[in-house]
Amino acid sequence: MLKPFEVHIQAEPLTRFEGELDAAGWSALQAQAARTRASMAGRTFWNVSSTARGGGVAEMLPWLLAYARGAGVDARWVVLTGTPEFFHITKRLHHALHGSRGDGSPLGKAEHDRYDEVLRDNVEELLVMVRPGDVVLLHDPQTVGLAPALARAGARVAWRCHVGRDTPNDEVARAWEFLAPGLAAARLTVFSRAAYVPPQCADRAVIIQPSIDIFAVKNQPLAPGAVRAILAYTGLLRGEPDAPEPAFTRADGVPARVSRGADIVRLGAAPAPDTPLLVQVSRWDPLKDPAGVLEGFALLLRQSPDLRAELVLAGPAVTSVADDPEAATTLQDVIALWQQQPHFVRQHVHLACLPMGDLEENAAIVNALQRHAAVVTQKSLQEGFGLTLTEAMWKTRPVVASAVGGLQDQVVHGVNGLLVRDPGDRAEFAGAVRSLLADPQRAARLGLQAREHVRAHFTAARHLTDFARLLEQLDARG
């Protein structure tokens, strides 16, 4: 029998934000926390997702719930378990919500029966823990089928969809048809963009944009020497004589060092420390278009053979993300494409699987890689929001992103980054990257504006306030 498991979260104090907010903002956050603490007294705020590692949901939930607990709310995180067949079906749904056919496999009654069977096992354990009046926030297609049983047990259920497509098509409609039975039991639905809301949710939809924790290991300040040392130890840069330790600070304040290397496909040596790097850090997912990044960079090299820049495509170790069965295939496709490139191109491209055995170590490696990048890109074909771009913008990196989904909510073209209007246009992408590599002053100016945009719109203080209002709305609809 499949059973969900709980990820235990340590409380973090809201006082961390006192220095990041003005007096009015800090006072408002404290007042909202007091109201939420009172309204949730004796109740639990459950969050249910499909994986504890890899992807934006697993990135956000630990620290959002840690701050909620720091505010005095009993916020808890449960991760469901599933079969390979279940995760194949939910990956197909993930593609369909983006308007893509994925592998083209069916989403019919037989698939729905297998989906429901896995969730029936999981919900039995949840019903032991969840009490009437508790709030349950379900995340993404993997969990929506839990809603009816939880609602019947007296929980106040909301469902959050982190993905979507601006212009719905037949595939999007197919996904909503599959999810409709579970979706009907949710009091409220939460989306990252208004364009993602389907007609059947229009009267109970709330818009909450994702955010980053600026205090997390992935976003903590790192000295340039530590950045280079971490990347050298991982194998992503050439080492330097007398380099410092590859050190970072864990979330609990304890000093640590990177002790694992990355698995890297490359031809020749690692980049020199002063080589400008174009970097994309994402899951190995065809919708993140790692193949398109490689092809666009190859075009850039052919157009500018004297360009002194190299590409790092980085993602998690492919066996580390339970709910993403396509990762290994996508990586192999990218490696095959890399092998087809001329020798000159392969010398300038590095494909890296980052270690996931220690999630804080992984966060430190991503932090260092983003900070070292000359340009960070997120050239997705579809994108729910794109937190890796938010992270890079916080680090003052100049960014190039596709004008799709939530990426276009973050980047104001020419002000805090560059948008590629057609994500399939390799020439447009290559030109945008070239323009930033050729003009470091402009790139630096865009990076500074990017950090301030994130500070104003995409940090945890705003997100926590949105969560508190969601809880109020759920109670009001009771």
TrEMBL record:
Residues 47-198 form the Trehalose synthase N-terminal domain. It comes from the Bacteria. GO terms for biological process: glucose metabolic process. Homodimer. PANTHER family: SYNTHASE (CCG-9), PUTATIVE (AFU_ORTHOLOGUE AFUA_3G12100)-RELATED. Belongs to the glycosyltransferase group 1 family. Glycosyltransferase 4 subfamily. Keywords: Carbohydrate metabolism, Glucose metabolism, Glycosyltransferase, Transferase. One of its GO terms (molecular function) is glycosyltransferase activity. Pfam families: Glycos_transf_1, TreT_GT1. InterPro entries: Glyco_trans_1 (IPR001296), Trehalose_Metab_GTase (IPR052078), TreT_GT1 (IPR049438). Residues 273-452 form the Glycosyl transferase family domain. This is Glycosyltransferase.
